Amino acid sequence: MSEVAKLLVAFLSTVFALRVLFLVKRNLLQLSYILFWIGVCASVFVLGVFPQTYIFFSQKLQLFYYPILPVVFAILLVFLKLLRQDIDLSEKEKRLKRLAQEMAIWRASR
Amino acid sequence: MGPELEKTAFIIPALNEEKTVGTVVSELRNFFPLSEVVVVDDASEDQTPTLAERSGAKVISHPFRMGAWAATQTGLLYAYRKGFEYFVTLDADGQHLPREAPKLLEPLYRNEAEVVIGSFTERGGLFKKLAWKFFQKLSGIKVEDLTSGFRAYSRKAVSVLLSSDFLVTDTPDFLILFALKENSMSFLEVEVKMLPRKEGKSRVFPSSSRILSYVILSTVLSISKRCLRWQSS
Prior knowledge:
The structure holds two protein chains of two kinds.
Chain A: H1 3-25, H2 31-49, H3 52-60, H4 68-109
Chain B: H1 2-6, E1 8-14, H2 21-31, E2 36-41, H3 48-54, E3 58-61, H4 68-81, E4 86-89, H5 101-109, E5 115-119, H6 126-139, E6 151-154, H7 155-161, H8 173-182, E7 187-191, H9 208-232
Parallel strand pairs in B: 1-2, 1-4, 2-3, 5-7
Antiparallel strand pairs in B: 4-6, 5-6
Helix pairs in contact in B: 4-7, 6-9
């Protein structure tokens, strides 16, 4: 990877991390999610500036196209994140419906 | 069937059924004057709650639409907290005949079962019948009319059904049957007469895509429940 590309990746990942911190500052992002996004930024930074990290593992796995390893890893991470979000949404929907049921019963019982 | 009727509640989930709900409630009040009739209005846009109340039902209205099962559960929750011992669920569209309810209640009163399902296997086309057979084999639940909403439950069975876990879907027919089976509730199925839907499409299955998604989801659920049971045994 060229030095310019490494600088670009480092810059973009840093900007993204600052954006995440800004969202936390404005109370627009739950603190529990910050670890994930800071972790993503840190991973992009490290993999971009030090490509030898994933090249080493790609060679061990005998991959022909080394950059595919972080791409596959990123896709898996996105799927896990989406699944986690669906689980959370399901739980919230259950709670919301239960709350609505309780409210309906309370109103009928007045 | 005297004193038990005072401890019996009829639960009717209703969505835009102004044409039939009044008749259903009136018939129930005539046949079972000692019992409570609860109509749970799932945010109807017509006169369903007004007409139900005028006919003598206790009406509970959802603030927004949550589906037939959520409405049924709201009614069960209300009646359970009021101390009722026996619960009958039926539809507001006039398909389920109030005069058939004693066939469900008598086995319950005699403690022959915790859950009594009113079965009318003549309804539904070939596809529905094939689907029922398929799900019976897959789920291991030996109930002929798997999707009948005309059921009677004991208080013990209802205590299982009140969990908010059943709110993950609008049509938890299988989820409920599995849960009841896992909690060792005894089932009984009795033949009852039902009328065809008087008008309109099914509220629960208004389209083919909805039916298809129900079939797929029920298949996945049946497999997951049986596999988990196998893994834990």
